[in-house]
Amino acid sequence: MGQNLALNFQNHGYSIVVYNRTEQKTREFAAKHPEIAAAYTLPEFVEALDRPRKVFLMVTAGPAVDASIVALRDYLSPGDVVMDGGNSFFQDTERRCQELAGRNIHFLGVGVSGGEEGALKGPCIMVGGSSEGYAKVRPMLTAVAAQVDGACCQLLGPRGAGHYVKMIHNGIEYGIIQIIAEAYDILSRGAGLKANQVHTIFGEWNRGILNSFLMEITEEVLGETDPETQKPLVQIILDRAKQKGTGKWTSQNALDLGIPTPTIDAAVGARNLSALKDERVKAAKMLRKPAKARRIGRIFVDKLEQAVLGSIIATYAQGFHLMRAGSQEYEYGVPFGDVARIWKGGCIIRAKLLDPITRAFTEQADLQSLLLYKELTRTLRKVEKDWREVVKVAKNAAVPIPAISASLDYYDGYSSERLPANLIQALRDRFGSHGYERVDKSGEFHTDWTAYTTV
Predict the structure, then answer these.
(1) Phi, psi of 225, deg, nearest 5
(2) Cis status of the peptide bond prior to 52, with omega within 30 of 0
């Protein structure tokens, strides 16, 4: 991804210098691209840059970023700009901004989405940092970014704002990928459809309201044949998903801020459960009898499409709800409409649905939840009946659908005027004297439960 981003800058007329701590990698890149200058030591690298220097880091998140900064900082000068384009945790970016500010060096946390292809052809770029630092690199970043209704690059707030928004982007990505995988499972294992049939269905969905990058590549993946076995490639891939932690960070942050993100949480949990492959094989033999595949027709496929649509809307709603809370908590001032707009190009979760989401925040900048936006509200009411039927069918077929089910629960919970939390409060007061509020008067109350205690 770093190599492709370098080529992207070069293709847009920028003179760049590349460096990798592994000299052999630098030499291999230089041999393929002699038009790009290469450096083999850090002093040589920094010296080759025009002032104010603009350094773009594309290294693994975590200690590698800190090590790179430590190695670089003594060669840099006040006014230089360091950009971290990796999937760094936003709190680490906060710390690094503060540390380099003490040296009058601008540090920008730059969330880059689009994968290797996007890095070359135009990614979505989510920037956090000082406006002064961003002004120095804005022309180059907007030039290499995807172009949809303008450049898909934006300063989204100070310090860690860019990486915070990227974290939520990745959490939404986790949720949508899990929803898509569950729909695939319902069609293939629950209904017994062949790979080519499922491939056709996803292709049809991608040409409708569900049009998105993830749907597009799902269609592509499902149409791929393994050259060795001549079987559908997806069928010979081990069902054990890996993760880099950004979805988990989203769930953890949501818990810290008290914001419900059940679809994202379910997606993280589903990946963790998939990792227990050996245990699942044993449990499948001991705990269950294989469910018989259910015959389905065109009508059910359409219902499943509606359930996927409702679930994806709920996932975006959870992400933006968390983003609003985080923007307030960390004083980022994130412009939500701009986030939705730049997500329309280059990034992994770009989708047709981002059009109404962009309109939502353009029309109502203070919108509390996407579920309350009239256009999306109408859609959710329309899909609700089909959504419920799909969940019922999946449960009866013993096909786990944690993300689709959690999305429906979120919709039901958010739209419930009254929840059973009153009983929870009563129980907390009973065993821990935690108190409760009343519906008929203000204040905090406690019941003397000793009168009800029996010996």
Answers:
(1) -110, 135
(2) yes
Residues 151, 235, single domain; the answer is no
Nearest to 105 by CA among 136, 73, 58: 73
Q: Which of 166, 248, 303, 344 is catalytic?
A: 166
**Known catalytic residue at 166:** yes
- 296-350 pLDDT tens trace: 888 999 999 999 999 999 999 999 999 999 999 999 999 999 999 999 999 999 9
Whether 290 has a pLDDT exceeding 70, the answer reads no
Q: Which of 274, 270, 356 is nearest to 317 (CA)?
A: 356
Identify the sign of the CA torsion 143, 144, 147, 153.
negative
Q: Range of 124's domain? A: 2-159
- Both structure tokens of 362: 């353009």
- By the 10 Å C-beta count (0-12 exposed, 13-18 middle, 19+ buried), 42 is classed as middle
The token pair at 235 is 């069928």
Q: Is the dihedral of CA 402, 358, 205, 307 positive or negative?
A: positive
Q: Give the total residue count for the chain.
A: 455
How many domains are contained in the chain?
Answer: 3
CA 326, 80, 51: angle at the middle one, nearest 5?
A: 150
Do 371 and 262 fall into the same domain? yes
Known catalytic residue at 242: no
Please give the structure tokens belonging to residue 98: 């503060």
Instruction: Find the catalytic residue in 23, 94, 121, 173.
Output: 173
